[in-house]
Amino acid sequence: MILSRRVHSLFPRSWPAFRQSSSGAVYRNAGVDTAKVNYEEKYAEKLQRKAREQGKSVEQLRMELKEQERLRRLQKLKEESSKSTGASEPSRAYQASPDASSNTSQPTPPLSRKDSSPVKPLSSIFNLDKILQSPHTPEQISVLWRAYHESRSDGTGRGYLCASLPVETYQKMLDVASKYPRFVIPVPRDNAQLGDGSKQPAYEFYLMEWGFHGPPPEPSRSDDPFAQSKPSSNPQTSTILFTPLQEYKQRTSFATPYLVVTHYPDLAKTHGVVLLRGELTPSTAASAPSPAANEDGGRYMLSQQDAQLLAIHVQRFYLWNEGSEERAALLKAFHETPADFKWEDLLKHTDFAA
After folding, report:
1. Which of 226, 281, 325, 337 is most buried, judging by how many CB atoms fall within 10 Å of its CB?
2. Is 7 among the domain residues?
3. Contact (CB, 8 A) for 318 and 210
4. pTM, entire model
5. Triad 139, 314, 237: Cα angle to 5°
6. DSSP 8-class letter at 37
7. Compositionally biased, Polar residues: which spans (predicted)?
8. Are 233 and 50 in contact (CB under 8 A)?
9. What domain range is 288 assigned to?
10. Is residue 74 assigned to a domain?
């Protein structure tokens, strides 16, 4: 939903200030001070003890717990949506090669993880056995990954994003995200009408949060009797949750993410590729869709176009290459010197051509 209150109330005091008009549109005006979000301290002692046991900081542990709870809620929401529509995604793995359909004795992929990660394992989506049985180039894997997701939703691909990244690119993004795991992304909206009849550019702000879930095991053929588990040298699996700031303000850790992007590095060492999968949250009777979710009759909380825009901006702000100095400076300022963060500068980078 487009923000209906002052945006500055959505940020902790250490975050940059925003201002919007009574019409709900955020404008390129000066900001004001913000109120700090006070976190519950009821379980502070337990969190500190658990963080010491796991060798993590309290903040890292808090973010992991919040993220796991949010993903569990998202999964429940999807299950309820599937029951109401009678549609469900096939549980068997995708046939990853042209001759795979002739093999009727396929192994059944695991439907849940044995570890504590809330992320759906790649083997429940992609038939890794078929990938390993015959040589596949990164380009071929990318084509298969896209073809699978394009076949979803009656062949429209609606509700999903997909891409493949070179492992080097993903590692660069991961290094930056580990230092700066939160950011805000403005999504352009239709111009808002002011009282004097003029119009101003309007934006809906989304909070994005990275989560890290440890490296997945290196895949091995299930029919190999001598295969032994070994420490994984893959990069970490990661998720990115995109939640409207208004939703986050109202429900904090119980807020529903409108888009969840997962990076699967299972094939990073074997094939040098990391697979990206984005899932849009389905609309339900209990949750009204965002005003931007006008595609497919409001089946999703976010439109396909806005989901693609959010995913593109992840690379624009977290992949620091030549020419990205301004975006890198904004990300650093957001975390390190929030008083110097100017959201007017952020809006300069919302255009695809920027």
Report:
1. 281
2. no
3. no
4. 0.67
5. 65
6. P
7. 229-238
8. no
9. 48-86+117-220+232-316
10. yes
